[in-house]
Amino acid sequence: MPFQTEDELRRFLRLCLDPGPGRPTRSPETLARVLPAWMADDLAQHAPALAALRAELARAEAAVTAARARFAEGLKVWIAQETSTDEAPAEQPSPPQSATQPRGECPACGLVYAMSRRGVLGFHHGMTPSGFSTGSRCDGVGLPPYQAVGA
Fold first, then answer.
1. Residue 28 confidence (pLDDT)
2. What angle do helix axes 6-17 and 37-46 make, rounded to 10 degrees?
3. Dihedral sign (CA 79, 83, 87, 89)
4. Range 122-142 average pLDDT
5. C-alpha span between 126 and 17 (Å, rounded)
6. What's the whole-model pTM score?
7. What is the number of helices (H) and of strands (E) in the chain?
8. N or C: which end of the chain has fewer CB within 10 A?
9. Are the C-beta atoms of 59 and 52 separated by less than 8 Å?
10. Dist CA 110 CA 121 (whole Å)
11. Taken in order 87, 90, 93, 99, is the CA torsion positive or negative?
12. Of 51, 74, 70, nearest to 62 (Cα)?
């Protein structure tokens, strides 16, 4: 059932979200998950930006699937180990370089957090002296990481 116009497709998708009284509604997230390939192809003709987002989603899902398989393999190897050790087994796959993010010590709270692409500390919550989260943004967010003098 290919849709000839953008309006036909949009009307049908609205109907999929809210089919009418007495019938269950669907969220856009659910619709995106169950959208058939032929309808996604029609959507790509009328909304190329959505097609690009769908392609990005497919790449991300493939990366998640690959990471899940690497984790399962590493778990299998770790479980099969005979001795107790804190070191990772030699056969365990390491995460890809692109998955690691630079980290730095926060000058305000002293803990280590991920840094942004600009080389400053990313968002994190402040910490009390006893080690509990304050629940609010730390004053060190957006600052360069702490570096000891002479380091």
1. 92
2. 130
3. negative
4. 82
5. 41
6. 0.47
7. 4, 4
8. C
9. no
10. 12
11. positive
12. 70
| Helix/strand/coil for 136 | strand
Angle, helices 37-46 vs 48-80, to 10°: value is: 140
Instruction: Name the phi and psi angles at 141, rounded to 5.
Output: -65, 130
Cα–Cα dist 126/137, whole Å: 6
The neighbour count for residue 69, using CB atoms within 10 Å, is: 11
Instruction: State yes or no: pLDDT of 95 exceeds 80.
Output: no
Taking the C-alpha atoms of 31, 68, 95 and 100 in order, what is their torsion angle to the nearest 10 degrees? 30
Instruction: Find, among 149, 110, 144, the residue nearest to 127 by Cα.
Output: 110
**What is the rounded distance in angstroms from the CA atom of residue 34 to the CA atom of residue 130?**
47
* Residue 138 burial class via C-beta count within 10 angstroms: exposed 0-12, middle 13-18, buried 19 and up: buried
Amino acid at 30: T
Closest CA to 32 of 45, 17, 10, 21: 17
**Cα(75)–Cα(69) distance, rounded to whole angstroms?**
10
Helices assigned H by DSSP within the chain: 6-17, 28-34, 37-46, 48-80
Task: Pull the structure tokens for residue 126.
Answer: 């402040």
